Amino acid sequence: MISQDELKRRVSYSPETGVFIWRVKPRRALPPGTRAGCVGRKALRYIQLDGVSYAEHRLAFIWMTGTAPPLVDHINRDPGDNRWHNLRAATVSQNGFNRKRNDRSTTGVKNVYPMPSGRYKVVVTANHKQHYGGLYRDIQSAREAAATLRKDLHGEYARAE
Predict the structure, then answer these.
(1) Residue 45: C-alpha distances to residues 33, 36, 97, 100 (Å)
(2) pLDDT tens-digit profile of 30-57?
(3) In the sheet where 45-49 sits, what is the strand order?
(4) b/e string for 75-112 if b means 16 or more Cβ within 10 A?
(5) How many CB atoms lie within 10 A of CB 137?
(6) 20 Cβ contact list (under 8 Å, min separation 6)
(7) What whole-number distance in Å separates Cα of residue 28 and Cα of residue 37?
(8) In which residue ranges of the chain is pLDDT below 50?
(9) Which of 42, 82, 111, 135 is least surrounded by CB atoms within 10 angstroms?
(10) Where are the domains of the chain?
(11) CATH architecture of 101-157
């Protein structure tokens, strides 16, 4: 992992915009003052330093704190948004809490499942355990119950929908 001093020598970072700018010429084609990095897989931005490709969100943590956590969560779920207030350290579970609903959801509501009886069941997973949130006659009641249970179990990492 690159040190904070070496990173700051090579690039500048704006916590307000999340943009990295080259301070030193990285290669022949790019002059200092140009935006560092490129868009890679899953829309994440990467910067190559000494032949090693680093995710920008990890470099932002190194720039700001001197270390990088094992996992960085984008609060607004936009992988290209590396503004400091949009980044937070997370565990694998916490990062998963911030996921959007599954596209295959038959109800269109995160953590709400239809039952053969016509009711809706609420189930939220936290710490590798499923937590039952009850059965509801209508989808809106189930949606509200799921949001409340997610907030209780996931805290600041809870995603509304």
Answers:
(1) 18, 9, 22, 21
(2) 889 999 999 998 889 999 998 899 999 9
(3) 38-39, 45-49, 52-55
(4) beeebebbbbebbbebeeebbebbeeeeeeeebebbbb
(5) 11
(6) 11, 12, 13, 35, 36, 37, 47, 56, 59
(7) 15
(8) none
(9) 42
(10) 4-89, 101-157
(11) 2-Layer Sandwich (3.30)
pTM: 0.78
**Which strand ranges, in their side-by-side order, compose the sheet holding 112-114?**
112-114, 120-126, 129-136
The pLDDT value recorded for residue 149 is 95
Class of 4-89 per CATH? alpha beta
Q: What is the pLDDT of residue 128?
A: 86
Reported for 110-118, long-range contacts at CB under 8 A and 24+ positions apart, including other chains, are 110/146, 110/150, 110/159, 110/161, 111/146, 111/149, 111/150, 112/139, 112/142, 112/143, 112/146
pLDDT of residue 3: 95
pLDDT value at residue 93? 86
Cβ atoms of 116 and 138 within 8 Å: the answer is no
